[in-house]
Design brief:
271 residues, two-stranded antiparallel ribbon, seven-stranded antiparallel sheet, alpha+beta
Length: 271
C-alpha cells in the first residue's frame, strides 16, 4: 500500500481532532552481527497520535513531522507478557509481519489505548454500522406496526375501564343491598319524589318503617291528639307515603302538631 508522505504528514499535524493521544514506550530490537547473534532490546519514549485507522508517533509532543506510522488494518491488539509492566502488542495477520510492542505508563492508560486501537479499524466500524442498521430497521418496523393499530390500545383500555366497577359512571353502579333491600344512600336508590314500585314490579322497595307514635293525651281507642289532622292515614306504609320525601312530610305534620301542643301548654303555665 503506497502512501503520499506529504499528505500523511499534513494529516498527522493538521487541526483535525485526534481519537486518542499520549506518550508510550515503543520496544526496539537491535541485532548485533557477531558470533552469538545477540539481540538487544530497548524502549523509546514516543508521542503517539491516533486518527481514524492511522497511528502516528513523533519523537516529541511538539514535533511537526511524524517519525513513523502504523496502519491499523488486518491486525489485533492484545496484552502481552514482557519484562515491562502495562505492555500490549499490535500484531498483524500476515505471516512474518512486524509486531509493535508498546508500554503504557499505568493500568488505566493501557486499557484506554487497547480500547481505542481495537476500535480504529474499518472492519470494526463496518460491524458497528451493520448493527446500527439492524437496530434502525427493527425500530422502523415496530413504529409502523404501532401506527397501523392505534385503536387497539384504546379499546383495551376501555375494556379495563368497564371491568372495574369503581370506574363506572354513577348510574351504572349496582345498588347496594342490605338485608335484601336497597339502601337510600346508594347509587341505585330511587330519586326523591318518584314512585317506589314493589319488588314484584322489577324494582326494590323501601325497608320496613317503625310504627307511628301516638300522643299521650289520645284516648285508648286511638283518637287523635288535639291539633292533629284527623285526615292523616293510620299507617304511613301506603302508596302515598312510600317514598322518603312523602314520609318526611307525613312525620313532619305529627311533629309540628306536638310542638304546637307544647307551646300552648307553656302559655297556660302547664309544663
Amino acid at each position: 500500500m503506497k502512501l503520499n508522505e506529504r499528505s500523511v504528514a499534513h494529516y498527522a499535524t493538521c487541526d483535525s481532532p485526534a481519537d486518542h493521544a499520549g506518550f508510550l514506550r515503543k520496544r526496539v530490537e537491535r541485532h548485533h552481527h557477531h558470533a552469538h547473534h545477540h539481540h538487544a532490546t530497548s524502549y523509546q519514549r514516543r508521542w503517539f497520535v491516533l486518527k481514524g485507522n492511522l497511528l502516528f508517533y513523533f519523537e516529541e509532543r511538539e514535533s511537526r513531522e511524524p517519525v513513523g506510522l502504523v496502519v491499523l488494518e488486518g491486525c489485533t491488539v492484545e496484552l502481552c507478557e514482557a519484562a515491562e509492566e502495562f505492555a500490549f502488542a499490535i500484531r498483524f495477520d500476515d505471516a512474518g509481519a512486524r509486531a509493535y510492542v508498546l508500554v503504557a505508563d499505568g493500568q488505566a492508560a493501557m486499557e484506554a489505548w487497547v480500547k481505542a486501537l481495537s476500535r480504529a479499524s474499518f472492519d470494526y466500524m463496518r460491524l458497528v454500522v451493520r448493527e446500527l442498521e439492524k437496530q434502525l430497521e427493527e425500530a422502523c418496523k415496530s413504529l409502523a406496526a404501532c401506527r397501523k393499530s392505534p385503536r387497539r390500545s384504546s379499546s383495551s383500555g376501555r375494556k379495563r375501564h368497564l371491568s372495574n366497577p369503581a370506574l363506572l359512571p354513577l348510574q351504572e353502579k349496582p345498588a347496594v343491598l342490605e338485608n335484601g333491600y336497597s339502601t337510600w344512600g346508594s347509587g341505585g336508590g330511587v330519586p326523591m319524589g318518584s314512585a317506589c314500585p314493589d319488588r314484584d314490579g322489577g324494582h326494590t322497595k323501601p325497608p320496613p318503617l317503625p310504627p307511628r307514635r301516638r300522643s299521650a293525651t289520645g284516648s285508648a281507642a286511638g283518637s287523635p291528639a288535639p291539633g292533629l289532622s284527623p285526615a292523616m292515614p293510620e299507617s304511613p306504609v301506603s302508596p302515598e307515603t312510600a317514598c322518603f320525601s312523602k314520609l318526611h312530610s307525613w312525620y313532619g305534620q305529627e311533629i309540628a302538631a306536638l310542638r304546637q301542643e307544647w307551646q300552648e301548654r307553656q302559655k297556660r303555665g302547664h309544663p
